[in-house]
């Protein structure tokens, strides 16, 4: 069973910590703010008040024995960076850090962060895609220029099979799943027909996905 240490208990950090704890993982939650620590104490394995930039304090807490560290100390960029550096020097195998923007993300990667996340930016992108096309329910960036979208079947798709629609050959995208009410077809093939109200999960290049979204026009 993996053990997690979560440092910085704002909305993001506490959400990560309590979700892991609810899934029965061992979670050590750390913050320098006493109220934040108290607020989470009965939801995680251990909650401790400490300064995340104090190497000795992190050593004493046995942080080096954890498999994964999640760092989210808000807009305090220098603390984010220093803490990440200490965790990697203590040889924590996997350190994930929440960054406010790409520039700080770059620095975090340079000091050893194994993964940098930008939840505010990513959620903004997803919401915007949803607003731009009313049939797009969700968008996830999968790699630069590639994404996964969930769309509601457009009128032109209804009653047609994947073969009829020639998604692969025409749009160079793959339909990964078709959701119909409660039913999920996770390996749709050429003969599967799209019905009204179906939701399609499609992977492809962003420009191809854009074409697909406008398939009705
Ligand atoms: P949110 O998801 O709420 O936006 P956030 O990480 O952006 O979260 P904050 O609400 O500022 O932002 O949360 C940062 C947390 O990190 C606070 O609880 C703060 O007490 C804690 N923190 C800041 N500096 C340190 C530090 N040096 N050591 C430990 N905790 C710290
Ligand atoms: P291909 O070489 O494109 O895989 P195929 O004849 O081997 O073609 P079939 O599984 O028979 O593949 O599908 C015929 C056509 O139906 C495909 O070329 C493609 O346009 C479409 N198709 C089938 N399954 C999917 C899918 N999951 N997503 C998108 N298009 C599909
Ligand atoms: Ca914030």
TrEMBL record:
RCK C-terminal domain sequence ranges: 134-217
Domain RCK N-terminal span(s) in chain numbering: 1-117
GO biological process: potassium ion transport
Signal peptide as annotated in the record: none
Gene Ontology MF term list: monoatomic cation transmembrane transporter activity
Pfam assignment, any one: TrkA_N
UniProt-recorded name of the protein: Trk system potassium uptake protein TrkA
Organism the protein comes from: Halanaerobium salsuginis
């Amino acid at each position: 069973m993996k053990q997690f240490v979560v440092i910085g208990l704002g909305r993001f950090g506490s959400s990560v910590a309590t979700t892991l704890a609810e899934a029965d993982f061992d979670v050590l939650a750390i913050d320098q703010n006493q109220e934040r620590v108290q607020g989470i104490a009965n939801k995680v394995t251990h909650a401790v008040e400490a300064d995340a930039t104090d190497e000795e304090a992190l050593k004493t807490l046995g942080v080096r024995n954890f498999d994964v560290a999640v760092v989210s100390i808000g807009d305090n960029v220098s603390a984010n960076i220093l803490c990440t550096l200490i965790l990697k020097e203590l040889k924590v195998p996997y350190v994930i850090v929440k960054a406010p923007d790409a520039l700080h993300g770059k620095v975090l990667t340079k000091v050893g962060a194994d993964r940098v996340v930008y939840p505010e930016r990513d959620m903004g992108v997803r919401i915007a895609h949803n607003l731009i096309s009313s049939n797009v329910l969700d968008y996830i960036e999968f790699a630069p220029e590639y994404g996964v979208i969930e769309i509601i079947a457009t009128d032109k798709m209804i009653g047609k099979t994947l073969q009829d629609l020639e998604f692969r050959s025409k749009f160079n995208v793959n339909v990964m799943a078709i959701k119909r009410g409660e039913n999920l077809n996770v390996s749709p093939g050429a003969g599967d027909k799209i019905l009204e109200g179906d939701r399609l999960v499609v992977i492809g290049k962003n420009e191809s996905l854009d074409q697909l979204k406008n398939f009705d026009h």
